[in-house]
Amino acid sequence: MAATSAADLQPVAAVVSRLQALLQQAEQQIPENAASRPLPTSELLGGVNALHEDISDKYDQTYKWAAVETAAREIFYSSLVDLDIEDSTAVTVWHLFDILSLCGDQGICAPDLVCLLVEELLDSQTTIKCRIVFDYLESRRERLAQKDFQKKSLVFLRSCNELLRRLSRAEDAIFCGRVFFFLFLTFPLGDRSSVNLRGEFHTENTTKFEVSGASQESMANQTSVDADASDTKLETPKSTTPQPTGKPGSKAVPIKAPPKKATEEPVLSNSELYPIFWRLQQDFSDPTRLFAANNLKVFKDGLAKTIAKFSKTDVVQTKAATDSSRGQKRKLGQDSLDGAATQNQEVVGNYNPKYLTSRDLFDLELSDLAFQRHILVQALILIDFLLSLTEKAKQKLPSLDDKKKDVVFSFMLAEKDAEWAVATRTTINTLLQTTLEGKLFARMVETVLARDKNWIRWKIEGCPSIVRQSVSMEMELEAREGARKATVPRRVPARPNGAMDLSFLVEGTGGGLELLEDPSRYTAPAINELVDGLKNDELDLEMAMDDEEKTGLENAMANKRWRILREARATRLEVLDKVVPGNSLDDVFQPQPDAEMQDAAATDDRQSREDRDVPEVVVNNAENEANADEKMPDGTALHDDPIKA
Predict the structure, then answer these.
(1) What is the tens place of the pLDDT at every residue in 544-600?
(2) How many CA within 13 A on the CB side of residue 546?
């Protein structure tokens, strides 16, 4: 009995026939160039949803997914036998991938099925033909990553990493960049798939260079001499410069010592610098070697000699920049169009993933601007790493658990070495800015290094999620209501809160100029009114509840006493002699009758005397006798009596 394969099963055969019908329908819509033109999903949606029609409901979802996957692989493998990826016959594969992508989004098959088939297609093609497959991935990147990306991310990462291992970084540099950009754009920013959590360095990246026996011996001798020199302490002779006496009147001027000149690093020849220069690559690839004091000293010496050589070497333009501007006749207005292409050619010409270390090429490499920048940027990266190990930098780190201390080194950089690192970093930045378009390049490098510091801190903190939670419906409605209330046009009230009442300025209602014409505003109060007010204040003072109220009443009483005395000075001067400080003024200033009342009383008195027929002379005599006690200072009477006279 012949064995039955999975493709011979009735559900699989039904799905195969439906997939082939969908492929024929797709070829009629887009007959060619399907690698860069995705299929429209609206016209294929009905046929995709009908793939499970003949499969019985007694089978679960796993069985249905397996049936679709088996049918898809049957069509894919049959097309792969005679497939020429560069020919138009490959349109069937691209359409099949688009249909399976739509099936995964609709839940008809596994979401990562299309990614698995693309991975197998990349494995079956050469590196040159993989570029066409990658064209398909780049054109469908947003559609593939739109839904269920967590189930596809591992397949994407595995297939791209395997492709990068097959590519040559020297010959396929642009294609490698496309792969990296695809990963960067596809994976979210906070994904931990590309994070070096344990902080491992690429120590396998070794640099081999030619070192003769004499060079090795000179390097060893130089290391020992430098170590001995560092251990020897030189005594500074005492200064014999005469000091000023400091006596007054002395015209002696102190003689200042000449300023010390900064010791310049000697510029070595190319043959002498060659082994020292290439030895720096060992420290660049494994910075933890600098935790040893001897290795750090050798690195500092080698970097100083390299910077001194770079600063004294004249740089030349790269070959790509020279060739791109030689012998070209441009039309009017074409400069702006060809500017980007020229810049891209320069970047391609300057790219060197690993420089050659031959002695014969060392002279040319030193005069190459791109080569110098490459080395100086490496030095900046390493110096930033050393500065992150200072005590001040470690104090800024958050408190970490034991599980998150994998990338935090226990080594502490000495203060003297930290000062050297800061000074060297400043020197390198200055050297970068003095080159061709150096300020732009230096600013770009500083921006990249600053972002890298933030990336390292995020990794030290354990890669916390940078995705914010979506806003709840209650918060959104509350925010909308607040925004609506804040934007409602407000009506100005007739009298805003805290505004002053200006009704007293209205004419015709007792305000305005009429209020100013009120005699009470410019007429001084009478003494009687002030005395009554003083009595009221005395009663209120006895009922005062606190010291503040007592103080206010005492001030008001003192004010009224002063006004009473001031008014008495003008109208009742004779009673001022009776005023005793501290005593009450009630007895002194008795209420006086008004002038009208006095006139009325005098009239009544005169009328009564006429009725009694009493001569007026007698009355006057009686008045004079009543005033007899009032004497002048010389003893004479105040009023002369006409009868006695």
Answers:
(1) 888 898 899 899 989 988 888 888 888 888 888 888 887 778 777 766 555 556 666
(2) 2
CA 346, CA 331: separation in Å to the nearest integer?
Answer: 21
For the chain, the residue count is: 645
Tokens at 72, concatenated: 């898809």
**CB of 134 closer than 8 Å to CB of 126:** no
User: Long-range CB contacts (< 8 A, 24+ apart) of 374-381?
Assistant: 375/280, 375/306, 375/310, 376/307, 376/310, 376/428, 376/431, 376/432, 377/445, 378/280, 378/284, 379/280, 379/284, 379/303, 379/424, 379/428, 380/425, 380/428, 380/429, 380/445, 380/449, 381/284, 381/449, 381/452
**pLDDT exceeds cutoff 90 at 252:** no
Residue 86's nearest CA partner among 60, 116, 125, 118 is: 125
Cα separations in angstroms, 304 against 121, 216, 263, 363, 533: 51, 20, 12, 18, 96
Question: In one letter, which amino acid is 150?
Answer: Q
Residue identified by tokens 């030189």 is 234
Amino acid letter, residue 577 = D
Cβ atoms of 557 and 537 within 8 Å: the answer is: yes
CB 270 within 8 A of CB 365: no
15 burial type by CB count under 10 A (0-12 exposed, 13-18 middle, 19+ buried): buried
How far apart are the C-alpha atoms of 456 and 406, rounded to whole Å? 12
Q: Assess contact for 318 and 309: CB atoms under 8 A.
A: no
- The phi and psi torsions of 234 (rounded to 5 degrees) equal -90, 135
CB atoms within 10 A of CB 419: 10
What is the residue-averaged pLDDT of the chain? 76
Q: What residue spans of 487-594 are helical by DSSP H?
A: 513-516, 519-522, 527-542, 547-571
624's enclosing H/E stretch is helix 616-626
Distance CA 346, CA 320 (A): 5
Instruction: Show the tokens assigned to 457.
Output: 């801190």
* pTM of the model as a whole: 0.56
Q: Which residues are paired to 369 by β-bridges? A: none
| Residue 242 predicted with pLDDT over 60 | no
Let me know: does 383 contact 307? Beta carbons within 8 Å.
no
The two tokens of residue 350 are: 């300057």
